[in-house]
Amino acid sequence: MTKFVYADNAGTTSISKTALDAMMPYLTEYYGNPSSIYSLGRKSRAALDSARETVAAALNAKPEEIFFTGGGTEADNWAIRAALEKMSAKGKHIITSAIEHHAVGHTLSALEKKGYEVTYLPVDEKGQISLQELEKAVRDDTALVTIMMANNEIGTILPIADIAKIAKSRGALFHTDAVQAVGHIPVDVKALDVDMLSLAAHKFRGPKGVGALYVKKGHAIPAFIIGGGQERGRRSGTENVAGIVGMAAALEDAVRNMDENIAKITRMRDRLIAELSKIPYSRLTGDPVNRLPGTASFVFECIEGESLVLSLDAKGICASSGSACSSASLDPSHVLLAIGLKHEVAHGSLRLTVNEANTEEDIDYILEVLPPIISRLRDMSPLWEEKMNVRV
Fold it and tell me: 3-state DSSP call for residue 18?
């Protein structure tokens, strides 16, 4: 029987028993509408209030600074559009990085068509922006700087506190997409001094379809969805009580066990990096030091990422690639191109992301299965044959 190993936790995670157990009563017994005044509705309202306090505490925020959303993408969209509406008198200039998630990047592309000007800061080979370049890019008409806390493909962690300081020194609002960071590394909104921060439950073993937007007190951002006035009039629609409760339980659990989880996950990640780096013509992508605990991302020359992912799947291993199979485009990931990889090299990308649910036996199996697959795929590749002939 083929062993099963899930190593795509940056894509989504399995829901934890803690989160599922917390959700069940609000799916079966306490199903009242939180806007209702009868007791069943009041129980749901109390659960929402408690969840808001829990999420706020995990981020060192105030409960009134937390707005629940339908996920990280919605939180990013809301933050960006609300910030620009709020700052309309200041200007229509936005600064971001070249490696943002599409939830940010595609939103900004749409805004460019409506007359906004966007500066895309380049990154180095590690996926880091230059703070000096950011200082040069900020202008008097810069309304918003939005830069992610940790990259979803290569795992690089960016210096958000330093970035926020520069942005705010010129009167711009600062938003960070922290979807990959929250629940995995310490996130303290006061220490970071961010104006807005996005998160998604399914990245830290909560349910899918629920997230949150932190908005620093004092920033009265415009409403995103108009209707019945939920979320203090900013995001209408009957709340997903069970999902929100599950998110809060998962986040509380992640923060409580963070030190232990980071130690365990980092050991597994480092084993993957050390062993896979021994494969000829392989390259670790992302910052080798400032990276997420669970991300081991590589490119293997003369390999197609799609073939690699499907071959691993045939062996029971779930992984992902930034190659063309993930989109309708023939181009590889914009992140891999931004860190300076050539197209033909970037096509051979593989992202393995582990979390606390993984085991050392999972790592053993990946390291047993992956190198032979790479050898087999290279043996079938004319590019590999050409490379070897040139080398000889």
Answer: helix
Residue-range definition of the domain harbouring residue 239: 17-256
The enclosing domain of 105 has a CATH number of 3.40.640.10
**329-357 pLDDT per residue, tens:** 567 899 999 999 999 999 999 999 999 99
Residue 325: predicted pLDDT: 41
Nearest to 325 by CA among 295, 341, 305: 305
Please state the three-class secondary structure of 205-246 as a single string.
CCCCCCEEEEECCCCCCCCCECCCCCCCCCECCCCCHHHHHH
Q: What angle do CA 177, 183, 188 make, to 5 degrees?
A: 65
What does the DSSP 8-state code read for residue 71? S
Please name every residue paired with 300 in a beta bridge, in sequence order, or none if there are none: 282
In this structure, are 222 and 89 located in the same domain?
yes
Cα–Cα dist 214/59, whole Å: 9
**Long-range Cβ pairs for the range 339-347 (8 Å, 24+):** 339/99, 339/123, 339/124, 339/125, 339/126, 339/127, 339/154, 339/285, 339/286, 340/124, 340/125, 341/285, 341/299, 344/301, 344/383, 345/283, 345/299, 345/301, 346/299, 346/322, 347/303, 347/304, 347/305, 347/323
Residue ranges, the chain, pLDDT below 50: 324-328
What residues are paired with 94 via a beta bridge?
118, 144
Q: Please say which residue of 256, 283, 305 terminates a domain.
A: 256
Classify residue 108: in a domain, yes or no.
Answer: yes
Domain match, 216 and 356 both: no
- Evaluate whether 121 touches 137 at the Cβ level (below 8 Å): yes
Q: Rounded CA gap, 200 and 210, in Å?
A: 6
43-79 confidence digits (pLDDT tens): 999 999 999 999 999 999 999 999 999 999 999 999 9
Q: Which of 337, 166, 163 is nearest to 177 (CA)?
A: 163
| CA pair distance 152, 343, nearest whole angstrom | 19
Contact 355, 180 (CB under 8 A): no
Look at residue 10 and tell me if it is in a domain: no
**Tokens for 192?**
């970071």
Domain count, the chain: 2
Catalytic residue among 15, 118, 279, 325: 325
318 catalytic, yes or no? no
